[in-house]
Each structure stands twice: as structure tokens, then as C-alpha cells.
Amino acid sequence: MSTAPDGTVLAAGCVLWRRSPWGDDGTEVCLVHRPKYDDWSHPKGKLKRGEAALAGALREVLEETGYRCTPGAALPTVQYTDHLGRPKRVEYWAAEAGEGRFTANSEVDRLLWLPPAAAHHRLTQPRDRQLLLALLDALHSA
Questions:
Q1: What's the burial of 30, exposed, middle or buried (CB within 10 Å: 0-12/13-18/19+)?
Q2: 134, 137, 128: which is closest to 31 by C-alpha?
Q3: Cα–Cα distance for residue pair 51/43, rounded to 1 Å
Q4: How many CB atoms lie within 10 A of CB 93?
């Protein structure tokens, strides 16, 4: 696990999206359910020692969702205190999903592809909702 000199836990993730497979020009966002916390969030995880944030974000997306992805715009960095009381900083990117297939595991037991409005309501943490809005802004600016 990588930490900053001040002890902050360093992590990274992506707000994973795809074009709707239904041909309606819509966008869908990937949410993962973590049974340990019983929450819905974006794929993310702690960086390995010496790992670059973007490399860690792409690794975590693949591990948690089974999808490879193409990173896009950097999204806001999120800082909060984790469940153990440690400061945590998570860097995020927008990322378009490529090929892949989800397989449930001990970290992530469910995955949903949802339209943005439904994803906004399903996300557990307000900070994750802000990231979703940042993704939509980035996609509309592209």
C-alpha cells in the first residue's frame, strides 16, 4: 500500500462509462457493489508502493469490473477519512469501457450499468455523485 509522507493513504479509480448497447445514443455508468461496506461506488483501490496513480486506476478497474478501459479526462481528486480513521486521497479519471466481462469476487459482488440519473440515485456517497457530475461535464465538453 502506498502512503504520502503525511500518512495519507493513496488510491485511484475511474468513473467507468460506455455508450448504451441499446443504440439510443445514451451513456451508461458502471457502479460496483462492495459487500464489505454494503455500498455502491465507482471502481477504485489503494495504490501499490511506487505505482503511478493512473496505472493503479486502470488496474483497479480491471480487477473490480473485469473490463479494460481507455482513460480520458482527469476528474476531481477526492479526500476523506476512511473507515479506519486514516486520511485517504483518491485520484480519478473518466474512462471508457472496452472489452471485458464481470465476475463476482470477494471485493465486488455485483456490477450495474445504469443511465446517469439512475446511477446518481444508486451511489451511496455524495462524493461519488459529484464525480458522476464531473464525468458528465467532461463528456459534454469533449
A1: buried
A2: 128
A3: 17
A4: 23
